[in-house]
C-alpha cells in the first residue's frame, strides 16, 4: 500500500512538473513583436507583359527553426502588415500566387520540398513566385522589412519575388535562303516546346529536381535527346501560319520550368512545310531527295522542323549584351528568340547534331530577358 501511494505521489509530481513546463513554454512563446513586410516591385514590372507580374495572393511566413511561428496572407497586394510573432532570430519567406496550396502550418522542411508542375492542358496564368529565405532578427515591438524607415531590417535590400517559371518565345522569324537553297521556301504551321521538364522545386538554386518526366508539344521521331518518360502536352503547341514578322502580338512561346540536363535540353521548335520557292508542293522525287537528306519527315510528308536549344552554347547562337548562355533554362528569365532560316530544317529535332541552316539571336532580361538570335 505504501509503495502504491509513493508511486501515485511521484506520478502527480511529474504531471505537475509537465504542466508547469508547458505553461513556461507557452509563456516563452507569447507574441511580443510584429513585423510588416513589403516586396520590391521593380523586378516585377520590367516587362510589358503585366499579367506575368500580377500578384493575386501573397503569403508571408515566419519560422523559428523548422517550426512555422507566424503566417499571414493578403490579396492583390505587395505588402503584408502587422504579422504577430516572437522576438528573436527567425527566418522570413514570402510566396505569391500559390493557388490552392495550403502553406499555413508547414514546417520549413516541407515548405522547401514543395514542387511546381507544368500542366498538359493549360499554361499557367498567375505565375507562382517565391522569395529567398531570409534570416532576420526581430526585436520586441514593431519591426519592418522592405521599407525606407529608420531601423528597417532589410538594410535597403528588400525581398524580391522571382517567378518559378521562365519563358521562351519566338519574337521574329525570317527566311534568308542561302544560294544553295534558293529554290526552297517554308510555310510555317506551328510552334512547340520539346523536352520541357514537367516538375521542379519552388525553392532552391537550382530548382531542378530528380523527377524524370518531360513534356512535348509536337510528337516527332525519337533522337539522342529524347527522354524515356515523355508525355504529350497540348498546352505546349500553338498553330502558326503567319509570315514570321508579325509575332509581336501572337504569343508564340511558352512558360517553362528549370532544366539543366544536358542530355535532355529543352527546345523551342518551329514546324513548317518545305516547298518550292514559287509556293508549289515538292514533286515526289524532290520529296524522296529531301527525306534522304534528313530534311523532311517522310517521302510523302514535307514537314520540316527548326529546333532551338534554349540558352545553349552554339556557334550559330548569338546573345545580346553580356549574357553568357548556361546550357540550361533558369527561373525568372525571358528568352526572346529571333530565328533566321537559311535552308531546309530537320526531320529529327530531338537528335543531337551540328546545326547548319539556322542562326539564333537571343535577348535575356530579368524577369531577365535574353535575346537569342538563331540562323538555320
Automatic annotation (TrEMBL):
<feature type="domain" description="Major fimbrium subunit FimA C-terminal">
    <location>
        <begin position="165"/>
        <end position="367"/>
    </location>
</feature>
<keyword id="KW-0281">Fimbrium</keyword>
<keyword id="KW-0998">Cell outer membrane</keyword>
<protein>
    <recommendedName>
        <fullName>Fimbrillin</fullName>
    </recommendedName>
</protein>
<dbReference type="GO" id="GO:0009279">
    <property type="term" value="C:cell outer membrane"/>
</dbReference>
<dbReference type="GO" id="GO:0009289">
    <property type="term" value="C:pilus"/>
</dbReference>
<dbReference type="Pfam" id="PF06321">
    <property type="entry name" value="P_gingi_FimA"/>
</dbReference>
<feature type="signal peptide">
    <location>
        <begin position="1"/>
        <end position="17"/>
    </location>
</feature>
<comment type="function">
    <text>Structural subunit of the major fimbriae. These long, filamentous pili are attached to the cell surface; they mediate biofilm formation, adhesion onto host cells and onto other bacteria that are part of the oral microbiome. They play an important role in the invasion of periodontal tissues. Fimbriae and their constituents are major virulence factors. FimA proteins from different strains have highly divergent sequences, and this has been used for classification. The sequence-based classification correlates with pathogenicity.</text>
</comment>
<keyword id="KW-0732">Signal</keyword>
<dbReference type="GO" id="GO:0007155">
    <property type="term" value="P:cell adhesion"/>
</dbReference>
<dbReference type="InterPro" id="IPR053878">
    <property type="entry name" value="FimA_C"/>
</dbReference>
<keyword id="KW-0472">Membrane</keyword>
<dbReference type="InterPro" id="IPR029141">
    <property type="entry name" value="FimA_N"/>
</dbReference>
<dbReference type="Pfam" id="PF22492">
    <property type="entry name" value="FimA4_C"/>
</dbReference>
<comment type="similarity">
    <text>Belongs to the bacteroidetes fimbrillin superfamily. FimA/Mfa1 family.</text>
</comment>
<keyword id="KW-0843">Virulence</keyword>
<dbReference type="InterPro" id="IPR008110">
    <property type="entry name" value="Fimbrillin"/>
</dbReference>
<keyword id="KW-0449">Lipoprotein</keyword>
<dbReference type="GO" id="GO:0005198">
    <property type="term" value="F:structural molecule activity"/>
</dbReference>
<feature type="domain" description="Major fimbrial subunit protein N-terminal">
    <location>
        <begin position="48"/>
        <end position="163"/>
    </location>
</feature>
<keyword id="KW-0564">Palmitate</keyword>
Amino acid at each position: 500500500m505504501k509503495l502504491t501511494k509513493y508511486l501515485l505521489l511521484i506520478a502527480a509530481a511529474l504531471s505537475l512538473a509537465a504542466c508547469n513546463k508547458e505553461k513556461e513554454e507557452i509563456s516563452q512563446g507569447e507574441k511580443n513583436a510584429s513585423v510588416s513586410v513589403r516586396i520590391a516591385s521593380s523586378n516585377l514590372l520590367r516587362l510589358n507583359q503585366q499579367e506575368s507580374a500580377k500578384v493575386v495572393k501573397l503569403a508571408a511566413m515566419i519560422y523559428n527553426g523548422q517550426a512555422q511561428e507566424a503566417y499571414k496572407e493578403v490579396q492583390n497586394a505587395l505588402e503584408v502588415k502587422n504579422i504577430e510573432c516572437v522576438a528573436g532570430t527567425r527566418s522570413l519567406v514570402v510566396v505569391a500566387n500559390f493557388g490552392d496550396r495550403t502553406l499555413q502550418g508547414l514546417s520549413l522542411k516541407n515548405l522547401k520540398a514543395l514542387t511546381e508542375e507544368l500542366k498538359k492542358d493549360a499554361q499557367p496564368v498567375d505565375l507562382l513566385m517565391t522569395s529567398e529565405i531570409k534570416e532576420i532578427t526581430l526585436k520586441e515591438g514593431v519591426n519592418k522589412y522592405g521599407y525606407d524607415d529608420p531601423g528597417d531590417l532589410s538594410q535597403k535590400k528588400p525581398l524580391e519575388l522571382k517567378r518559378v517559371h521562365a519563358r521562351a518565345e519566338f519574337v521574329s522569324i525570317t527566311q534568308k535562303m542561302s544560294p544553295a537553297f534558293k529554290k526552297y521556301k517554308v510555310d510555317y504551321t506551328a510552334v512547340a516546346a520539346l523536352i520541357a521538364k514537367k516538375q521542379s522545386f519552388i525553392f532552391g538554386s537550382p530548382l531542378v529536381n530528380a523527377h524524370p518526366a518531360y513534356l512535348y508539344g509536337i510528337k516527332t521521331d525519337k533522337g539522342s535527346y529524347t527522354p524515356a518518360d515523355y508525355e504529350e502536352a497540348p498546352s505546349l503547341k500553338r498553330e502558326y501560319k503567319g509570315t514570321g514578322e508579325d509575332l509581336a502580338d501572337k504569343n508564340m512561346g511558352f512558360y517553362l520550368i528549370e532544366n539543366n540536363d544536358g542530355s535532355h535540353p529543352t527546345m523551342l521548335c518551329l514546324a513548317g512545310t518545305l516547298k518550292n520557292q514559287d509556293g508549289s508542293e515538292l514533286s515526289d522525287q524532290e520529296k524522296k531527295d529531301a527525306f534522304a537528306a534528313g530534311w523532311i519527315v517522310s517521302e510523302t510528308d514535307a514537314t520540316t522542323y527548326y529546333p532551338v536549344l534554349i540558352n545553349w552554347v552554339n556557334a550559330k547562337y548569338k546573345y545580346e549584351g553580356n549574357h553568357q548562355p548556361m546550357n540550361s533554362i533558369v527561373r525568372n528569365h525571358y528568352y526572346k528568340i529571333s530565328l533566321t532560316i537559311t535552308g531546309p530544317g530537320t526531320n529529327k529535332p530531338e537528335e543531337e547534331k551540328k546545326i547548319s541552316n539556322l542562326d539564333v539571336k537571343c535577348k535575356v532580361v530579368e524577369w531577365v530577358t535574353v535575346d537569342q538570335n538563331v540562323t538555320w
